[in-house]
Write a structure and sequence with these properties.
Mean pLDDT of chain A: 78
Radius of gyration of chain A: 39 Å
Low-confidence stretches of chain B: none
Low-confidence stretches of chain A: none
Radius of gyration of chain B: 22 Å
Strand content of chain B: under 5%
Shape of chain B: elongated
Oligomer: heterodimer
Structural class of chain B: mainly alpha
Order of helices and strands of chain A: HHHHHHH
Largest sheet of chain A: none
Shape of chain A: rod-shaped
Helix content of chain B: over 70%
Largest sheet of chain B: none
Order of helices and strands of chain B: HHHHHHHHHH
Number of helices of chain A: 7
Chain lengths: 127, 209
Amino acid sequence: MDSPADEKAQDFVDNITGALQQGHSLDPLVDLSDGVHEEVVDLVPVIQGLRATLVPVEPSADFAAHLKTQLLENEAGLAARLRKKPARLHVAAILAVFAGFSLLLSRRLFGASSARDITEEPVATAL
Amino acid sequence: MQKFFARRSQYKTLADRALVELAADDKEAFGELYERYLTKIYNYVYYRTGNRQDAEDLTAKVFQRAMSHISTYVERGLPFQAWLYRIAHNLVANWHRDQGRRKIIALDDFVAHSLQSEAPDRRTEEQEEQKQLMEAVRRLPEERQQLLLLKFIEQLSNVEIGEIMDRTEGAVKSLYHRTLLALREDLQRGEDISAARRLSGSAARRQRK
């Protein structure tokens, strides 16, 4: 629990910081510093130093654009993109996949039997 | 096409909460949130890591993580901005822990930046003071560094800082005051040390003569 003197000091530095950030004059606040320990008033140069030192920086435009593209394109992956296509395209895609499987299956079945015929024939001849 | 631009301009007027709700299904809404917070998060990470390369890597991770968890985010007293900063804070903390880089952060980038941003006739003395202050800031405990960055770089209010740091407004004020006292003490110690070095240097020169 902070003492009333601590709370007064905290309010003082907080108000000074706010005034500096908004570009207001510090004079009225320093006038109100009666009762605030001199040690606290000495913090004003530290606050001014922090304000001058901690200045915002900008990310490079290339990085910002690249990251945005990366984020938004990743989200729109294949599944996400397919979900947003019209229903008729979904039906067409399902039919195409079904046809592909059927073709593979028929090739395997008929292809295997014809291959067996071919391999069996020379063996029979040799015997 | 017109619809697209109309929707984008509509997003600009929406509050974060509404955008977050849309962003679960709509990447353009997330894009708007990204535009709003990229610079803020980048600044925060940049000052916590001390170099642009790591700042870019970690900023990318913050937004990737936010995007992958946005559908599960529910605003229960924690605004989106605070949520994003917490992700950034956790990633930076992991970065410091994993790499053990906290003590060897390069300040070159910072110095280069300050040289670039000031007038050419800027006094070397001022640059040196800023460098010392920056080094003192980096010696502070993590939560105090975080507080200073949120206050000075992001210019957030004590209430907003409290939301991010999970503290009351009064606790933020108190921590800020203690941080300033610690910084001043550190700087004074630094001045004492450099004064002692100057004295010992001149004593050594006298002896040589």
